[in-house]
Design brief:
The complex is a heterodimer. Chain A is an alpha+beta fold. Helices cover 33% and strands 23% of the residues of chain A. Among the domains of chain A are: 46 residues, 2-Layer Sandwich (Uridine Diphospho-n-acetylenolpyruvylglucosamine Reductase, domain 2); 96 residues, CO dehydrogenase flavoprotein, C-terminal domain (Enolase-like, domain 1, 2-Layer Sandwich). A five-stranded mixed sheet of chain B has the order 2-1-5-3-4, with helices on both faces. The chains are: A alpha+beta, B alpha+beta. At the A-B interface, helix 2 and helix 6 of A face strand 4 and helix 3 of B.
């Protein structure tokens, strides 16, 4: 790892100032991706800005929304009785990320800022039509994800919280790579105030995306059977040693059906 | 150089580190606590698991400076002061839950946290799932799972 300066600001304004003043500064949330990336020397920040003292961890549940602070760990979301009650699919998703020790450190804000094409949280954010709040503005899920490892965040923008509208029904199912346990395909389906939405992670070359043909079919009839005859083109699917693009396209169909069945 | 002050196995320590120093490097190289192992160095194998403020973490994937002010427990801090083994250590011995022993410190630390956080009790399947972040290349896990299962009533009785 290349060395860097380390800062742990105690206010969001200080964190934003530090980021704005140094184009080579990087934000550290839970570090479960950033630290491995630094070890591989894939990134060489001048300064690492630790967000852990900004009071950004916490979960608030109102009647129609679950709001999760950016520094809330996956373990905290998975264990939250309130999240389990309001959006059980979200708690289950958080409880299926990585392993226990990764969930004890990794955060929702870090996952979304990184936007790994195999990450789980982007599927929940996109399918539930969540709103991402930063130190500057609110961003709708549809505007936030802009391709693999790419988001709408400006260089000096920090996620503060994510607000999920409570759906009527939702489920997340992922097909794990048997070795790495990353989602080869993960599908989050939801129906509720934002309509029928289906988001797919792990499969697309451009990161998480909405499966609009499945949404149209499920909008007519919310059942796995409604997806008969719905297919997705392999053209923009990832292809690697684990699975070819046509295989991933096929899996999207299978996993979407399973997710709808699980949502009930 | 920045300084980090933390409590390790009940003892306070103030150590000079670099920004890039990992918690496991602080423990092993600065404090001489070599019971915590580095296996894969890529957050996968769990040989480096320690407790930070009572929660299991991979100490190869945490900066030393992130642990400033924290209470850290390593495998060296698990047994009682008089040498009496922690029930999890005792059950690992009883059930022969190790062969080469390389993964054992991380396994034990992960297992202690897993059992402590689940007072309702864990099934065999839940124990296996709970060990997802710890790799063992010798035992095939069977005796590790038996040891953890056997430690459950002993830990909860305390």
């Amino acid at each position: 790892m290349y060395d860097f300066a380390y800062q742990k600001p105690s206010s969001l304004a200080d964190a934003a100032r530090a980021l704005a003043s140094d184009a080579d500064a990087k934000v550290l949330a839970g570090g479960q991706t950033l630290i491995p990336v630094l070890k591989q020397r894939l990134n060489k920040p001048s300064t690492v800005i630790d967000l852990s003292k900004l009071g950004l961890a916490g979960i608030k549940v109102s009647g129609d929304a679950v709001t999760i602070g950016a520094m809330t760990t996956h373990a905290a979301v998975a264990a939250s009785a309130e999240v389990k009650r309001a959006i059980p699919a979200l708690a289950a998703l958080a409880g299926g990320i990585g392993d226990i020790q990764v969930r004890n450190r990794g955060t929702i804000g870090g996952s979304l800022a990184n936007n790994d094409p195999s990450a789980c949280y982007p599927a929940a954010v996109l399918a539930l039509g969540a709103t991402i709040t930063t130190n500057k503005r609110s961003i709708s899920a549809d505007d936030y994800f802009q391709g693999m490892f790419t988001t709408a965040l400006a260089a000096d923008e920090v996620i503060t919280e994510v607000s999920f509208p409570v759906p009527a029904r939702a489920a997340y199912v992922k097909f794990k790579n048997p070795a790495s346990r990353y989602a080869m395909v993960g599908v989050f389906v939801a129906t509720g105030p934002k309509g029928v939405r289906v988001a797919v992670t792990g499969a697309g070359q451009g990161g998480v995306f909405r499966h609009t043909a499945a949404e149209a079919a499920l909008g007519k009839s919310w059942s796995a059977a409604a997806l008969d005859g719905v297919s997705i083109s392999p053209d923009n699917m990832n292809s690697d040693i684990h699975a070819s693009a046509p295989y991933r396209a096929h899996l999207v169909g299978v996993i979407t059906r399973r997710a709808v069945a699980a949502a009930g | 150089m920045p300084q980090v002050t933390l409590t390790v196995n009940g003892k306070s320590a103030t150590v000079e580190v670099e920004g890039r120093t990992l918690l496991v490097e602080l423990l092993r190289d600065k404090l001489g606590l070599t019971g915590t192992h580095v296996g894969c160095d890529t957050s996968q194998c769990g040989a480096c698991v320690v407790h930070v403020d009572g929660t299991s973490v991979k100490s190869c994937t945490m900066l030393a400076l992130q642990a400033d002010g924290a209470k850290v427990t390593t495998i060296e801090g698990l047994a009682a002061a008089d040498g009496t083994l922690h029930p999890m250590q005792e059950m690992f011995r009883e059930h022969h839950a190790l062969q080469c022993g390389f993964c054992t410190p991380g396994m034990v630390m992960a297992a202690v946290d897993l059992v402590a956080k689940n007072p309702q009790g864990l099934s065999e399947a839940e124990i296996r799932e709970g060990l997802e972040g710890n790799l063992c290349r010798c035992t095939g896990y069977h005796n590790i799972v038996k040891a953890i299962d056997a430690a459950q009533p002993l830990m909860h009785a305390k």
